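Consider this record:
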Amino acid sequence: MRREPLIPLAESNAASTGSLGAAMAATLTRDLRQALRRRSELINPLAFFALVITLFPLGISPDKALLATLAPGLVWVAALLATLLSLDGLFRQDFDDGSLEQLLLTPQPLPLLVLAKVVGHWLLTGLPLALMAPLLGVMLGLPSAAFGVLMASLALGSMSLSLIGAIGAALTVGLRRGGVLLSLIILPLYIPVLIFGAGAVQSAVAGLPSLPHLAILGAMLALALLLAPLAIAAGLRLSVNG
């Protein structure tokens, strides 16, 4: 498959003159184009998410009251695993074809360029999961009043999952079978996001205020946006140059 250059020619001039915004936009656009050419890989996390939610009532019980009780945790665990499923390929294609080395050599700040790549991953994985969740929540008997909180919590939390997961993906990109190691590295870091994400939906189901949980998810996202790009950049340098 033909690979695009790291920064498309139409945008390379703007990037070479020091326009950081142009470089980030070029990186994001390139990743989105490449992902859309691999539609099967793009659909896999979404299909996994839908299958887990669909099969769960068949394996446990069709009782609506029981499913509504379990739905917040189930949806969040399924979304977490679906995100994890898509992380191994975040930097691997670029590593295999040498584009990752070009990324490390660009004059623009590496943490901001990898942030653009993580945003692309979230747009193709986390955001679709958040949009799909209410449709699948109907199958689990989730009250319609909780749909807004479910989408908001997944939108905030999935971006944090992408940022945290990208750290593990950067550290294991040079390994042939780094999927298991990636899971071991980042799953413990996912636990706080899982707790407060599911807690927000549980509060909405119980008719309690969910804003405190969403606020904590927002604070986690702000912290991840500040620190994760630096850790991702360091992990990539270690994997490629170490």
Observations:
- Confidence is low (pLDDT under 50) at residues 5-17.
- The chain has ten helices and no strands.
